[in-house]
Specification:
Strand order of the largest sheet: 1-2
CATH class: Mainly Alpha
CATH architecture: Up-down Bundle
Order of helices and strands: HHHHHHHHHHEEHHHHH
Number of strands: 2
Structural class: mainly alpha
Distance between the termini: 17 Å
Strand content: under 5%
Amino acid sequence: MNDNATQLPASPLAIPDYRRFWIARFFSVVATSGMVVILGYQLYDVARSAYDMPISQAAFLLGLLGLAQFLPLFILTPVAGLVADRFDRRNVATISLCIDLTVALTLALTTQLAVLSLPLLFGLAALHGTARVFIGPALASVAPNVVPAPLMPKAIAINSMAWQIGSVGGPALAGMLFASHPAAPYWTSTVLLGLAALSIASIRRLPPPESNRDSHPLRQMREGFSFVWNDRFLLGCVTLDLFAVLLGGATALLPVFARDILLIDGKPVGADGLGIMRAMPGLGAALVALILSRRPITNNVGIKMLLGVAVYGAFTIGFGLSTNYYLSLLMLMGLGAGDMVSVFIRNTLVQLHTPDAVRGRVSSISGLAISASNELGEMQSGVAAALLGAVGAVAFGGIGAIAVTAAWFFLFPELKNARTFAARYR
């Protein structure tokens, strides 16, 4: 693609292949974010009703659900990054989306037939995690192949809008559909994942770099980890997100707040309330992403990334301590906004600071850190809830996120000293 600035379009959306990529990303996020929220609610509800578990034990199972999704990611991340760098990334993403479609279809059928069980839900969660580990690096590596480098900051912001708008719409839509019929969210996810697979498959061929075809697979895996480990700035970005969100994650315990803590007119907010609660971080993030798509951050990027994580932790504490449903929604929106600032800066640096030959492997490592923070964060939240209660667990996590931010300020001075993205281009 010609990178000549005089021939660049005003927006990445003017590029047909990028539009197809964006549509695929949006549909897949709507489908999977809604599917995962309802899966968690069903698991918690099945544990409480069909298995007669107490709140603490059922909450602990929510942590195990996160672990079930994370283990495939932990095991397969090196393989997924290698696959994204050795094969057509478009095909890898399409096949992986079809696997996730199979998960959604199975959940739709088993919910329709009322044959859900805890082992089935855990097994399907693990298969979803397997599909996602391949979807992540493949999709993340597509955008830089179809968008010129000068447009990448805008593309990253627009990518984030797809993610965040989908994260808002997916859970909210799933909650409303679940209220009408428990299987409806899964049937909807099946259709959306099919459309996403068709959209990404329609992008032009993206053959892997020639240098990747002859290298030994084990050597290529090692190169990806070495690249991240030897880049202090990139290592600091990845580990900051890993540890801050691992401690600060509150979303795993949202079913507990929806079913047993937050009330409206003396009644639990239930599945409808859960869908709205789960959507609020995405709403806050989407509003920030919209601003950044028009006016991307260009200076003092490191300090702003650290501040974003600190704000995320502060609003997490606020959510944990709130007993008012509407104030809780505001707190969730605030933590999503803070997280979006950090995500935007980190993702832009990862894409612009990574050569195309190792982009799939580096993206898979970054994805591992993100998912480790989310899924292991869910495990940590479940354990903490069993020990401290749901309120104590969330508040403790928010304090931990702020503490990690303060520690990284001193451990990785490269972060606070970063001024612009331009110095990171390669």
